[in-house]
């Protein structure tokens, strides 16, 4: 097992002023006034006057870090990590425990890095307060510093993992409500969770990771509606007949989690695993399957649940996707929507397109292969509903830079799909993805010429189709 990377982002909140002016004021050189955050499992965690908070890497008002310190990797499971953070947020790193000099963001980063890797952050950062206070000027301004706090805007308070049974209610809602931030999950994803839409597009987060280019002009497609929760409630008595009492309690917690708007707790690995087991019960009917899949689609719009799925060593979700070909039509569509929602974020895309091999049914397979096969199967199916979701999946994948092989595999299916009668939206998704894949691999452009892509079928249907057809024509001509 290779482990999960752990890095410390280091920010100089003085923006260079400490380095240029510290000697005049303190009589010694100070290179920066440091704020740090620990980046692990797709998030950056830090401590400030608001307690422990998180954001996407580089997601606070401070912007990109001045330095990145590599702590190595961790083998700590995500669920155990969240339990540890929960403990810290309720004990030594409560908001009122914050002190700019004695118990600050760097204290937290050092403790968290040690827990994850056994390796602390650079000592010149943790020693900075002592260096300042050792000077006459530092001693003089100590009373003013004691009253100060630092908490960069852009973070969200921790969601506390659910560790108590249903008989013990979660922490009261509203006490730690998430503050507004331009770097949170897209607002319209939350609109889905609040029942405002069933399928639409949401704006992407502005960032690039691991060299994957992110097209800010495209919006992710997401699926989900809170209306499914009423159907889920009706299924509970039937599910209770097939499950153990403790498993029924776990499913009830899933329902409670999805119906609350401002959770201060989160689902755990046991909830995700149980949903996977229920979906694989042979005598569970199609209605139950589709309802549970729709609930899981809603849950995947929440970043903490996405991270649980990504770091599930059992790969429950991908094993479920692997059953795609043997599933009923309605189940196939809902399985594909799971992948579509996962592609709403960079972390989900990275996981879905991972080429790391893992064993299943005496063979080695990778997530990327399963994702591509599912997308291609939908695009080439005669059923228009599957074509629609296949096009939406290809579109979401194309928002990032896929591999050249994936571009050819999915691109060839897109060309064939475009020879059929498609809705305006599905045609738009197909053409946009095809344009992206043609830029990645010349073979896709060659296939367009060989198979015979007829853009006249679409360019007069809407303004945006005319624009994307023009873009695609330029791309093909340049290749």
Element layout with pairings:
Elements lengths: L3 E9 L4 H10 L7 E7 L2 E6 L2 E5 L11 E8 L3 H13 L14 H13 L5 H4 L1 H6 L2 H11 L9 E2 L2 E2 L25 H7 L5 E4 L17 E4 L4 H13 L4 H15 L5 E2 L2 H11 L6 H14 L3 H8 L5 H7 L6 H14 L3 H7 L4 E4 L2 E4 H14 L3 H14 L6 H14 L6 H17 L1 H10 L11 H16 L1
Parallel strand pairs: 7-10
Antiparallel strand pairs: 1-2, 1-5, 2-3, 3-4, 4-6, 8-9, 11-12
Helix pairs in contact: 8-9, 8-11, 9-10, 11-14, 14-16, 14-17, 16-17, 16-18, 17-19, 18-19, 18-20, 19-20, 19-21
Structure description:
The protein contains 21 helices and twelve strands. It has 479 residues and is an alpha+beta fold. The strands form four sheets. It has a six-stranded antiparallel sheet, covered by helices on one side. A two-stranded parallel sheet has the order 7-10. A two-stranded antiparallel sheet has the order 8-9. Helix 14 packs across helix 16.
């Amino acid at each position: 097992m290779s482990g999960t990377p752990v890095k410390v982002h280091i920010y100089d909140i003085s923006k260079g002023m400490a380095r240029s002016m510290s000697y005049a004021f303190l009589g010694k050189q100070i290179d920066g006034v440091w704020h740090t955050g620990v980046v692990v499992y797709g998030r950056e965690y830090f401590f400030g006057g608001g307690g422990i908070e998180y954001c996407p890497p580089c997601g606070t008002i401070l912007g990109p870090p001045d330095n990145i310190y590599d702590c190595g990797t961790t083998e700590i499971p995500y669920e155990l990590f969240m339990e540890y953070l929960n403990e810290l947020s309720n004990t030594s790193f409560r908001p009122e425990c914050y002190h700019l000099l004695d118990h600050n963001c760097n204290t937290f980063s050092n403790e968290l890095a040690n827990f994850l890797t056994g390796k602390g952050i650079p000592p010149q950062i943790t020693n900075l307060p002592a260096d300042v206070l050792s000077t006459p000027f530092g001693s003089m301004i100590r009373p003013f510093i004691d009253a100060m706090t630092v908490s960069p805007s852009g973070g969200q308070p921790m969601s506390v993992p659910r560790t108590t049974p249903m008989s013990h209610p979660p922490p009261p809602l509203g006490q730690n409500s998430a503050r507004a931030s331009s770097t949170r999950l897209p607002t319209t994803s939350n609109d889905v969770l609040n029942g405002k839409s069933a399928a639409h597009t949401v704006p992407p987060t502005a960032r690039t990771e691991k060299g994957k280019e992110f097209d800010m002009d495209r919006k992710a497609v997401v699926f989900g509606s809170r209306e499914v929760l009423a159907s889920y409630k009706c299924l509970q008595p039937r599910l209770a007949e097939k499950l153990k009492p403790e498993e029924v309690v776990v499913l009830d917690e899933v329902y409670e989690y999805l119906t609350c708007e401002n959770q201060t707790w989160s689902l755990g690995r046991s909830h995700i695993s149980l949903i996977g087991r229920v979906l694989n019960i042979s005598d569970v009917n199609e209605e139950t399957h589709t309802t549970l899949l729709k609930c899981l689609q809603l849950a995947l719009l929440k970043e903490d649940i996405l991270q649980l799925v990504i770091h599930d060593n059992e790969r429950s979700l991908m094993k479920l996707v692997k059953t795609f070909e043997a599933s009923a039509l309605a189940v196939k569509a809902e399985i594909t929507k799971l992948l579509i929602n996962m592609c709403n974020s960079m972390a989900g895309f990275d996981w879905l397109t991972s080429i790391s091999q893992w064993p299943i049914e005496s063979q080695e397979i990778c997530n990327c292969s399963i994702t591509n096969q599912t997308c291609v199967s939908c695009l080439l199916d005669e059923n228009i509903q599957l074509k629609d979701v296949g096009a939406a999946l290809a579109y979401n994948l194309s928002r990032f830079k896929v591999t050249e092989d994936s571009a050819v595999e999915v691109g060839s299916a897109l060309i064939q799909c475009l020879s059929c009668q498609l809705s305006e939206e599905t045609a738009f998704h197909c053409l946009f993805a095809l344009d992206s894949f043609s830029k990645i691999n010349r073979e896709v452009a060659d296939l367009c010429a060989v198979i015979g892509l007829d853009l006249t079928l679409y360019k007069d249907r809407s303004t945006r189709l005319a624009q994307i057809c023009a873009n695609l024509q330029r791309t093909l001509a340049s290749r």
